[in-house]
Amino acid sequence: MVRIYGHPFSSFTWKALIALYERGVPFEFMMI
To answer: Which residue, 11, 20, 28, 32, has most beta carbons within 10 Å?
Structure first.
């Protein structure tokens, strides 16, 4: 499983999350 480390206000984090949601890739979001 992919683990994404980022902050909810970061535009770079959102770019990665949008791509994962669109492709249906399972991931775990870790807020820092």
So the answer is: 20
